[in-house]
Write a structure and sequence with these properties.
Blueprint: E1 2-16, E2 19-37, E3 43-46, E4 54-57, H1 60-77
Antiparallel strand pairs: 1-2, 2-3, 3-4
């Protein structure tokens, strides 16, 4: 099993009078992504701090990216 801690900041920009301005900046909670390779070769990635965030990927990086995207969506949806 591989474990990494991931840190995010949520930033929202908007265009005002042809200028890009920072509208909102909020740190997102830290979370851990655990990955493990299944016997059939697929990779599974899970975020233990967020129930239900568990995905499969063809590669470890694929599974990690999918878990990260799902975790960010769950956090954003509150």
């Amino acid at each position: 099993m591989h474990r990494t801690s991931t840190h995010f900041v949520s930033i929202l920009f908007a265009s005002v009078d042809n200028r890009t301005v920072l509208v909102y900046c909020s740190p997102m909670p830290n979370f851990t992504i655990e990955t493990e390779q299944e016997t059939d070769g697929r990779w599974i990635a899970e975020v233990p701090e967020i129930p239900g965030v568990m995905v499969y990927g063809v590669t470890e990086n694929d599974a990690r990216a999918k878990a990260e995207a799902l975790a960010r969506k769950v956090i954003a949806d509150g």
